[in-house]
Structures are given as C-alpha cells and as structure tokens.
Amino acid sequence: MREALKDYPVPSKVELQHLWSRYDFNGNGMLSLAEIDKLVSEEYPEYDNKQALLRAYKFADVDGSGFITKREFPTLVRSIAYFKGLADEFAELDASHDRRVDFSEFRAGAPRMGLDLSDSEARVIFRKMDADGGGLVLFEEFCAFMGRLK
C-alpha cells in the first residue's frame, strides 16, 4: 500500500511546517484525531470523509501511539487523499448506501472501476476482498484488498 501512495503528492516542506504549526495547538509534537479532523475540514474540505480520514490516521500512525508525530505527518497528508479516493470508489459500488458491498453490488459496479470481469472472476475477487467471509465487503476490507493491488 505504501507503494500506491507515491502517486499522491505531499505539500512542500514549508507548507507541511505551516500546517503542523497551525494544528499542533498545544505544541506537544503530536496530532490527535480531533486535531487532524479540524485540519482536513478547514484546509482540505474536498477530502473531508470521516471513514477515509480514520483509515488514513490508522495507516499513518506507524508507531502505534494513537497520535500522529511530525515524522508521520507527510504520510498522513498523502494518505488522506489516497483513502478518500478509495472511499469514493467504495461509495460507487455501494448502491444500497449501507456502507457495505454485497456480491451483486460488486458485480454491477466493477465495470465503473474499469474491471471487465466474468461472473466467476468477479466471485473469486469478491471472496478475496471479503476477508472475514461474511458475504459483505466493508470499507476496511476494501482498502486492504485495494492496497495489495496498487
């Protein structure tokens, strides 16, 4: 998945420093999810998708501290755009708008994702995506699968 992030630009070091200084309110050298949510809604409203933001936050938190450090910040910024793109693709598949995709939704939406699949090919891919075997693909599973492809 980290390889896929290379397609998403990072703001310049000066811009990153400005953002960091502005949103590290208490100067503790870490950003909480609430601080990052505020940053995205104010600076990048076009990427304001809570599901994608949470996924990007978890992905960028390499040290597992529950906070984003200054070192992790460039990865976070890049990840927000990446996961927003995946959230948009997932929403295209989720015809019922229930935040999960069943096989019929995947099959119907695959061509919109540029996938020309036979029914059997679609079933194989869907089963691989459905990590827990529950018959439904959740956003987390979709991201994990797409990260392996890209």
From TrEMBL:
Task: Return the PROSITE patterns for the record.
Answer: EF_HAND_1, EF_HAND_2
Q: Which UniProt keywords apply?
A: Calcium, Repeat
Q: Tell me what this protein is called.
A: EF-hand domain-containing protein
Q: Which domain of life is it from?
A: Eukaryota
**Can you name a GO cellular component term?**
trans-Golgi network membrane
Query: What InterPro entries does the entry give?
Result: Ca-binding_regulatory, EF-hand-dom_pair, EF_Hand_1_Ca_BS, EF_hand_dom
Instruction: Show where the EF-hand domain sits.
Output: 11-46, 48-83, 117-150
The Swiss-Prot or TrEMBL record annotates one GO molecular function as: calcium ion binding
**Pfam family of the protein (one):** EF-hand_7
